[in-house]
Amino acid sequence: MIDEKVIFESKELVENSGIVMVGTNGEDGYPNIKSMMRLKYDGLKKFWLSTNTSTKRVELLKKDNKTCLYFVDENKFAGLMLVGTIEILQDRESKEMLWSEGCDVYYPLGIDDPDYTVLCFTAEWGNYYRHLKNVTFKIEDTYNVVIENM
């Protein structure tokens, strides 16, 4: 049985985090970390991020799409790691979903800029740390958790 409080606190941590750390596997076998803005998400399962197509990160993801996302609340000394895979999306619908005022600073050719890429992360499992303990859970087990105001 999954701890409903862990799921509630994990979702709260995601909601309150504007930045997410994205971990990928480097070509040299060493891990790579990059901070990105948390743009759109669906529970603990799906996350959409944007980046430049020309980045080293996109090239790494083409070769190995296994990744993790890490969220942290330094005030509560809490952290959430989600492990899964990233899909590289270039379709207009995905780009429109994330496009907002100010994006043209990064993508000067607009929504159809070939250097504009959407990354869709799908989590398989998570690990939540708080209260001096780690709790590991499968994402599929979180679907049936009904969370009321805790």
TrEMBL record:
Signal peptide: none
Domain of life, per lineage: Bacteria
InterPro entries linked: Pyridox_Oxase_N, Split_barrel_FMN-bd, Stress-Dev_Protein
One Pfam family this sequence matches: PNPOx_N
Span of domain Pyridoxamine 5'-phosphate oxidase N-terminal: 10-128
Protein name stated in the entry: Pyridoxamine 5'-phosphate oxidase family protein
Native species: Clostridium intestinale
